[in-house]
Amino acid sequence: MDLIYQDNINIKPVILTESMYLTVGQWYSQQNVDKSYKRLSGFNNFQTISIQFKESQQLNIDTVNGMPLDCEIKLVPYSRQSYKIEVEGTNTGNNIGFGGNLIYQHKNLFKGIENLDISFNGALVFVEQTDTQKLVFNTAVETGVESRLTFQEFLLPFKTERFIKKYHPKTSVSFAYNYQRQIFYTGTFYTARFGYFWQAGEYLTHSVVPFELNAVKGGITNIEFYNSLTPIQRFNIVRTL
C-alpha cells in the first residue's frame, strides 16, 4: 500500500497499513471497506475519512477475470493538540460552590495515534454550619489532576498484527491525584492503573488490568464535629480515609 501525503507525515505508516482491511490483488468487498472505515474512525484522530474506488488506468491489464480498481484513501486529521476550559456552579442544601476544569488533549503524542488526556480540576464549596448562636460558613476545597495515555496496540514484546485487525486492542496507562479538605478531615488520594482493552464484538469489549494501585492519606481535623457524629457516620468517614 502506497501512502501519499503533503509535507511531513505525522503518523507512522505501519499504524495505517495494519489498520486497513484492503490489500492489493483482493476482490472488492464492501464488508472490508466498512471495516476499514470503522477502524479509522475508532482512532478518533481524523475529521474526514474518504475511501474511493475508480477504474485502473494501468495498461496491459487482463480484464477477463474482472475490472481492476484503484483505491484512494484520504485522511484529514484533527489538530494534534487541543485545550478546553469548563466552569460550573453548584447549590446543594444551601451550600454554594463553584469549580472548574482545564482539559488538555494530544491526539498523536509519539506519531502512533497515542492519545494523551490531562485534566486539572478544582472546586470550592461554602458549607453552612448552624449552631444555637450564629451562622458560620466554612470552606471545603478539592483539587486534583488526572492523566491517561492510550496506545492503539498492546504493549507486548511480540507482534500482534492479526490481533490488531480483528480485535482493535488498546493499552491504557493512567494516573490520578486528588486532594480534599473538608470541614472535619483532609484526604489525599492516589490512583495508578495499567490495562489492556479489546473488542470481542460490535457491542462487547473486554478489559484486563494487571496493575492497579490505590493509596489514601488523610486525617481528622475537627475532633468536636467528629465526636458529634453517629457510629455509622464515623465508620463511613474512616472507611473513606
What value does the Rg take, in angstroms? 27 Å
Gap from first CA to last CA: 56 Å
Overall shape: it is elongated
Looking at the chains present, what oligomeric state does this protein adopt?
single chain
The secondary-structure class comes to: alpha+beta
The chain-level mean pLDDT equals 83
Major beta-sheet overview:
7 strands, antiparallel
Overall tally of domains: 2
Uncertain segments of ≥5 residues (pLDDT<50)? none
Count of DSSP-assigned helices: 5
Binned, the helix content reads: 10-25%
- The strands making up the biggest β-sheet line up spatially as 3-4-5-6-7-8-9
What share of the residues does DSSP label as strand, in percent?
over 45%
Order of helices and strands: HHEEEEEEHEEEHH
> How many distinct beta strands?
9
General description of the model:
17% of the residues lie in helices and 51% in strands. The protein has 241 residues and is an alpha+beta fold. The chain has two domains: 65 residues, Roll (Ubiquitin-like (UB roll)), CATH 3.10.20; 160 residues, no CATH class. The longest helix has 13 residues. The chain starts with 12 loop residues before the first helix and ends with a helix. 5% of the residues are buried. The model has no long low-confidence stretch (mean pLDDT 83).
